[in-house]
Amino acid sequence: MNLTIPAVIQAAIDRGAAVAISVSAGKDSQAMEQALAWLRERHQWPGPFFAIHADIGPEFDWAWTVQLCRRNAKALGHPLHVVHRDNGDTLLHTIQKRVAVTAGTKPPFPSAACRFCTRSAKTDPINKFLRRAGDLVINVMGLRAEESRNRAKLPQVTIRKEISAERLKNLLPEEALAAWRPGKERLALDWNPILGWTFGQVLQACGASLTEMESRRALFQLGCYDMAFTGWPASPTYILGLDRHSCAICCMSARREIPIAGRFRPDLVRAIAEMEQASGFSWQKGNPVSALLSAETRSIPAQAGQVQPLPQRYKGVGSHNTYTRLPAGIAQNSAVLSRLPI
Ligand code: SF4
User: Fold this and answer.
1) Taking the complete model, does pTM exceed 0.70, yes or no?
2) Are residues 237 and 275 in the same domain?
3) Which domain holds residue 295?
4) pLDDT per position as a tens digit, 138-153
């Protein structure tokens, strides 16, 4: 697996930047957290290092999310900070308010073009925390190119403009770091270190594999719940048949996944269907969740909610990664990064 450190990130780490690992309990952020915790220990990164999770509330999330985030951070030996919206609203409350405000005049639901959900439930609370984390901060995210065309175009490193000093915002990351005045202003960088990783590679870095996942999915379908879930180190949502651990029903969910999630979450199907009815719009264009109201449901077995211990030597799962320093100038080019040997 490639896990390369762009020169500007290495320089920021060497200058004591706080490294914030943004985690969701999904496989991508779990894999990234594990690999970076190992690198940090091996190379004695000098600044603070912690995981951060934005809790969106129980209605849209899976019951095990926060527990898994806690387990993963504890196993790796760094703190986890769980943040919420200031006004205490969950994601469901935020969307319900938008349904009321828009009053049927325009679509009230989040979409790829209007990700107010991510901003209000995740980005804003995380930014509030990062403002207090220091004046040089690296926010690390587990986005992968394989997930969408937009993500495939993402650079490895950008400036997190919302919480960086005005005069640094429009510079290149390398220029901003060179111009940054410690103690006088804040510079925050966003870093996507696992853009080039595949589904199989992230499972491997979690201590699992695609073959194991498929076997466990089959056991789950057969009703062998103990065998399906015992010892599985990643989120149980993958065993239920979903490829993403996100909001159980996400505005970006693949059409195939919404009925699978809805089967296990009739509570969320009802909540979204009520908002569809009140607004006159469907959750995804041409794909109303209310169509699932009469679908068969299935309860989530208790075994899925039991937090599984992680494998021994969990932090060493990624120990075959090498520590590659990249020269300045190619740090923005993920196509180059993905070809570099490890
Ligand atoms: S997981 Fe989906 S619905 Fe939930 S906040 Fe993110 S984009 Fe919005």
Assistant:
1) yes
2) yes
3) 209-305
4) 999 999 999 889 899 9
